[in-house]
Amino acid sequence: MNFVLLLLGLVGVARGYRILVVFPLPSRSHYILGNGVGRGLANAGHDVTVIAPYEDKNAPKNYKNVVLTGVEDALWKGEAKEKFNPVENGKVHPWFTMLFVLNFMGNHMIEKVLGHPNFQKVLKEQFDVVIVEQFRNDAMKALGCHFNAPLIMVSSVGVHTWVVADTGSPIPPSYVPDMSLSYTSDMNLLERGFNLLTQLVYYLNSYLLFYPAQKAVAQKYFPKCANNELIISNVSLYFINSHESTNEPVPAAPNMVNIGGYHISPPKELPADLKTFLDNAKEGVVYFSMGSNIKFSELGPEVTQAIVRAFKKIKQKVLWKYDGDELPGKPGNVKIAKWFPQADILAHPNVKLFITHGGLLSTLETIYHGVPVLTLPVFGDQRLNAARTEIFGYGLAIDFFELNEENFSDAIEKMLSDPKYFNTAKKRSVLFHDRPMKPVDSLVYWTEYIARHRGAPHLKVAGFNLPWYKYFLVDVIVVFVLLPVLLLYLLVKKLCSKASKRGQKKNKSD
């Protein structure tokens, strides 16, 4: 029997598995990760269907695009745009973002995606493995049940409370900061206390508000699966978009696999104008990009002009990803464009500094190529990533909302003049590349492993199946700590009462 199962597994690999990849968030950076998953598996010979708001127009022949048309507008316009404005969200308390912005985004987005006609058509097909990005979309975990296929989740922002809830892996608040905070593993007393409270707020929010709302949506679209408690606990494997060279090490269950950097391809030849610009930069080049969500054309002129004046002072050339058609006061050493091939630019030896918002993809790419980084974090995990660049020694950080010409100029000057940042970035790059296999190969191997072993339940830790009160030893604390203390209190109280009564009787007899 075992021989037959092994033979069937080998036949499955030979013909390729049918794999569904769902990355529903209408964000270009998240789509890059989803497309990386799809292309990696398709290039390995599997039949891949990718559901996303965007399309890969040069996809491999065994890669099928299912485009969620209109979802991007649904999330970034009207009421949704007001709630998801990245600059405004960066100014509010992280608990507010958790309770209102992310809850609204998750519940708003999941309806738009699951109810989309292109998504509904895919539900009639069959797949061997389902891969879904985890980003406030827990109702989609019902897809594993719907297709009767193993479910793999992808954490695009590293290890955090969303992951450990599905794996049973510990996340000690004493040294693992929440992704919304700008802490590192070396937290002081107040930071550890606030980190613990943030985790508690997350769990209360999830179990009292978010999960019930997601389960209601799942019941609407997957009535045969949503009543099963496994809707929030049927994950076979977690791919984590991180690596020890860029993220601080944290505990990981056997079904958590680091594949940080899998989306990065070997550098390609640059367009002629960019190649000439970089080749002729004798003093080096500073590359500046704030990702796809920060639009300088929508910001006030104060921040933009402070940056312009700072760049005017340096002798290096500057490539600035700028979304506007014109940049008032643009210095002669600055070249602007609405898009640059970021990874290919970072690979050029004349790039001396990368200035970025601190997104995880940019952080991974800068370490891949060994370029020091100045981060200007705005929201989400960017502050956490920025703090790591400083503690690891290959970068500096300035909060975007505290940015001015003086501190920006000082940071650039310091990083360009002190070789320690460049040297440390190169050392980190060596660590990044020193792995048993390339991250994309690890992605392929573990996907096939989960398919071969039908979810590989043997990888799940026992804590995964424990109710919360057992996992956190609440019952032990009650029985062996609180109960004895209560009994001792009652006993002392009773003895004191008897002693008091005897004293009163003695006084009366006297």
UniProtKB/TrEMBL annotation:
- List the catalysed reactions: glucuronate acceptor + UDP-alpha-D-glucuronate = acceptor beta-D-glucuronoside + UDP + H(+)
Q: Which residues form the signal peptide?
A: 1-16
Q: Name one GO molecular function term.
A: glucuronosyltransferase activity
Q: Print the keywords alphabetically.
A: Glycosyltransferase, Membrane, Signal, Transferase, Transmembrane, Transmembrane helix
Is this entry keyworded Endoplasmic reticulum?
no
Major site of localization recorded for this protein: membrane
Per the record, membrane topology reads:
Single-pass membrane protein
**Record-linked InterPro entries:** UDP-glycosyltransferase (IPR050271), UDP_glucos_trans (IPR002213), UDP_glycos_trans_CS (IPR035595)
| Enzyme's top EC category | transferase
Q: Which CDD domains match?
A: GT1_Gtf-like
Instruction: List GO terms (cellular component aspect).
Output: membrane
Please give the start and end residues of each transmembrane region.
468-492
Entry's PANTHER family?
EG:EG0003.4 PROTEIN-RELATED
Give the similarity note.
Belongs to the UDP-glycosyltransferase family.
Q: What is this protein called?
A: UDP-glucuronosyltransferase
Per the UniProt entry, what species is this protein from, by scientific name?
A: Phyllotreta striolata
